[in-house]
Amino acid sequence: MSVIRPMRADAVRNRRKILDAANAQITARGPEVGMDEIAQAAGVAVGTLYRHFPTKTDLVAAVVAEYVLVVADDAQESLARARAGSSRAADEVIGFLTRVAESSADHHAVKAAAQGLGVEGHGDKSDESRASAALAELITIGQADGDIRAEVTVDDIYLLMATAPTDQPAPVRQRWLDLILPGITTPSGWGRVGREAAAEPVGRAARKSPAW
Question: Which fold would CATH assign to domain 56-196?
């Protein structure tokens, strides 16, 4: 029986640098940026990059999987705040939607790269399940509060996430949010839902506090 050995500390650091560089380079320069350029930006040898990620598809898939993990963490943290009573569930749902839309806009080129390379799925299925479960409970709490419409489901939230104008400037994304809010909230809840529910966009910085 083979034993999977944990990565050495330097390998973990190199992997982190490569993922950060891939995210930044694809976002800044577009889906066609080369592996050599990503390795240079990461400060590692090309061979080191290929040892971690044999193909560009593998690399982009890892970037996408990490993004989904952060989104799942954000959903669970949103739920924790609602459970604790420090915020309203409807505010957390709207904040989550806003952060994901903003982060998806930042990662638009990564999404294009994933589609172009045929990257399947959106990361670890367990992370998708965590996000779905947290959103479902948030919706249930918001419905019990009388803030979220009774017919709203998790699938509706994912539909909204999929149709967010992530390739448009910030004012257009804000207009999108203004238009969808009445479809999520009840007439009485509309007046209670905070307009500043969104916090920091989804990303590595948000872990201290994140489908397309």
Answer: Tetracycline Repressor; domain 2 (1.10.357)
Q: How far apart are CA 61 and CA 123, in angstroms?
A: 7
- pLDDT (average), residues 164-187: 89
Give the pTM.
0.78
Measure Cα distances from 55 to 66, 106, 113 in Å. 17, 23, 13
What's the pLDDT tens digit per position in 17-74?
999 999 899 888 888 899 999 999 999 999 999 999 999 999 998 988 888 888 899 9
CATH classification of 9-54 is 1.10.10.60, yes or no?
yes
Domain ranges of the chain: 9-54, 56-196
The CB density around residue 91, as the number of other CB atoms within 10 Å, is 22
- What phi and psi, each to the nearest 5 degrees, are found at residue 148? -110, 140
